[in-house]
Amino acid sequence: MDILLNEEEQMVRDAARSFLESETSTKLAREMEKDPLGYPPALWKQIADLGWVGMCIPDQYGGQGLGLTYLGLVLEEVGRAIAPLPLHSTTVPAITIAEFGSEEIKQAVLPGVCSGDTLLAFAFQERDPRIIADAIKTTAVLEGDNYVVNGTKMFVDNINTASKVLTVVRKPGTTGRDGLSLLLIDTDAAGLTQTLEVTTAKDKQGRVDLNNVKVPKSALIGEEGKGWPIAEKMLDVATALLVIQMEGTARKDAEITIAYAKERTAFGRPIGAFQSVAHMLADAIMWCDGAQLLGYEALWALENRGNAGLEVSQAKSFANDRLLPACRIGQQIHGGIGFMMEFDIALYYRRVAASTMRLGTSFEHRARIAAALIDQPGTVRLGEPIATL
Amino acid sequence: MEFAYTPAQRALQKEVQDFIAKEVTPEVEAEQDEIGRGPLVEAVYDKIKANGWRAISWPKQYGGQDGNRLDQYIVEEEFARVGFSVGGGGSGAPTILAGGNQEQKDKYIAKLISGEWSFCQGFTEPQGGADLAGLQCRAVKDGDDYIINGQKMYTTGAHRATHIYLMARTDPDSKRNAGISIFLIPMDTPGITVRPLWSIQNEPRAPRGTTYGENRTNETFFEDVRVPANCLLGEENNGWNLSAMGLNLDRVGASRYLISVRRDEDIVNWVKDPANADLAANIKDNPSARDRIAECWTEAQVCRLMTLRSMSIVEHEGKFTYEGSAEKVWAPEHGVKTTETIAALLGPYAQLLNGAEDAIESGLYAHNVMGAFQSGINHGSTQIMRDQVALRGLGLPRSR
Ligand SMILES: Cc1cc2nc3c(=O)[nH]c(=O)nc-3n(C[C@H](O)[C@H](O)[C@H](O)COP(=O)(O)OP(=O)(O)OC[C@H]3O[C@@H](n4cnc5c(N)ncnc54)[C@H](O)[C@@H]3O)c2cc1C
């Protein structure tokens, strides 16, 4: 037990921070909000060369074979820098493919991902946006060598630049956790259309309509009809990584606000000398710390234990509930300027706000926690692993 | 980052758990409830000591084990769960170890660790505790002695303690914290009077495990109390710095953590227990209730992780900037939130105190409503602790 970063982890974090500080800026982030791609390909290539995209992919497919915590540390820095990179949306399906895909599919897809040539996306949520199996209505019917897919996927991040989207589908006539499968669908397949939304983060989330899309049988990840544990793991990985990324953004927001509170004066003193201001900032930092500690533990548990659902849902519900208020404190302390489009603090606020709304509401995550705590026999004790149901 | 205990740490934890299952019998627990430290409890303490589990991280020469802080934490947590305190010498001892002269270390620490001696804390005064630097209790040098006059408030345990750890002003012209010194004084010194102050928890007594279940604290009066100069800890007028160290060490650890989170476990286990099926039905299947239980649970995990962070910092011999203070804001406020949540969930049963026929868990939850908030006042109130986070952690300018 030693929950501080070890030397290697610190090195990875520091290297990511200094790279992003020199290569990205909030100006770039704003430009990319208006850019049709949403990211600068040259920068993407650079981070692929640094090994970030393939960080958690085994080395035989061109990756670094490191644990999830390392990718978490990098994404925390990506969040801190608001670096416009489709790293989260590509690595999540790639990690899922590496863990559950066939040898053939891994060899076909992963080297291109690690080199930065192939971008991926993942699609779980639908019009009923709950992150539970019941919400999956998109169907896949096997006809000959192809699945025929019909349905609508929502909030698919960076769908505009992905060449393949890892999609959770259902066999018609099944319910609940039965009958789910994951298909890696080409985004240029006939019958697949995408419509980008306009979001608080001004990112590239899209709706994906699948209308009789033919997907070869070989695109199946895992076994047909047994996809729930794979989908659940993919969501858990995605959620834990998102928590730590949004925490990176929120902490930077708090740091900017702290600096502002030392400089800005009112009534003849720095506003940070007013206790009500100071105490809000103390809360903001504590909330960032809480999200970070829970987020790190979730990543660690995903890497080192089978079932980490409890840790993941703890982290996301807490991050949802506390990081938006942490950044709202930043808005409050900035006064009027925080409301101005051109001022950075508003950018951080928008980004964190949007992340709190993605990949499960606090209520959903807490329902999962409550079920794990209450709906199975035995007593609970803090610090002991508890499986989710 | 490593969030699991090593196999050796696990084994230690298991060993202690097995010991507790065998030795802390219902008879021992009954004695704890009735008289506190009686012969049965003392016998268990003797065995704990024989197993080398007392004050693990303290120096061997004073009765510790020269071990590491995390091992101590593991053992401390298990014993704290059943009401045994095995950490170190208790309040005061860390400061004596850090700032005392050799004679004082030899004299006090081993006896504090063994439990033969104990300190009560003489900080707070009638005019205020948060603003500790404003204290007025006077110690005047008179030849080889000091003569002490003043009054201390809320001297918890003063009626049982062998000594008082006293903060007094040695330089009358000093402002604020500059002229303050610490004295280690036997309670039987002539001129010391202890009077009880009965708390909100008095009559009926709170059940064991209640957060701030103490039914009594005290006020302690000093009238021309003459003590030899060797009662002075460290240097004259340096008491503030010394004591800041002691307080920091006091703020982190297993018992601090547990008093803020025990109810989070208790309510889940109570709801799940088939014996409570009738009373808990309203909670168990109620989505809003479940939501709030999960929320409290999650916040309790943050308490746990903040504590482990502190332990990790200690292991690395790192410096605390704000982490201890942050814990001292977060954990008490969390404890209150859970306490009030449970009260809301239990409804009318949450009123029933110890001794009521229909009380749940001997009135634990009802008594917690009367005690939990107190942990946000003691040892640095949450307001003062937020000031510390802002000042020392964030580098914000002083507000006063
Ligand atoms: C059960 C119990 C046991 C105790 N045990 C001991 C003991 O063993 N030894 C001991 O010395 N003391 C003990 N105390 C005293 C405790 O430490 C004090 O109550 C505490 O320090 C607060 O002091 P006070 O009660 O005088 O409140 P005050 O100092 O009068 O404070 C009142 C309120 O004002 C707030 N406040 C004060 N200054 C500021 C500021 N600058 N900014 C914002 N808010 C501020 C405080 O946070 C508090 O909310 C005990 C108290 C209790 C109830």
Can you tell me about this structure?
Chain A has 389 residues and is α+β, with helices and mostly antiparallel strands. Chain A has 3 domains: 7-118, Butyryl-Coa Dehydrogenase, subunit A, domain 1 (Orthogonal Bundle); 122-225, Butyryl-CoA Dehydrogenase, subunit A, domain 2, CATH 2.40.110; 229-374, Up-down Bundle (Butyryl-CoA Dehydrogenase, subunit A, domain 3), CATH 1.20.140. Helix content of chain A is 50%, strand content 15%. In chain A, the strands form 3 sheets. A 4-stranded mixed β-sheet of chain A has the order 1-4-5-8, covered by helices on one side. In chain A, helix 7 (228-263) runs parallel beside helix 9. The longest helix of chain A is centred in the middle third of the chain and has 36 residues, at 228-263. Chain A starts with 6 loop residues before the first helix and ends in a 15-residue tail after the last helix. Chain B is globular and about 70 Å long. Chain B has 3 domains: 7-87, Butyryl-Coa Dehydrogenase, subunit A, domain 1, CATH 1.10.540.10; 119-237, Butyryl-CoA Dehydrogenase, subunit A, domain 2; 251-393, Butyryl-CoA Dehydrogenase, subunit A, domain 3 (Up-down Bundle). By secondary structure, chain B is of the alpha+beta class. Helix content of chain B is 46%, strand content 14%. Chain B has helices at residues 7-23, 26-35, 39-50, 69-81, 93-99, 102-114, 239-251, 254-272, 277-284, 287-315, 323-346, 364-371, 382-393; strands at 119-122, 138-142, 145-153, 163-169, 180-186, 192-198, 216-228, 232-233. In chain B, helix 4 (69-81) packs across helix 8 (254-272). The chains are: A alpha+beta (389), B alpha+beta (400). Chains A and B meet through helix 7, strand 10, helix 8, helix 9 and helix 11 of A and helix 8, helix 10, helix 11 and helix 13 of B.
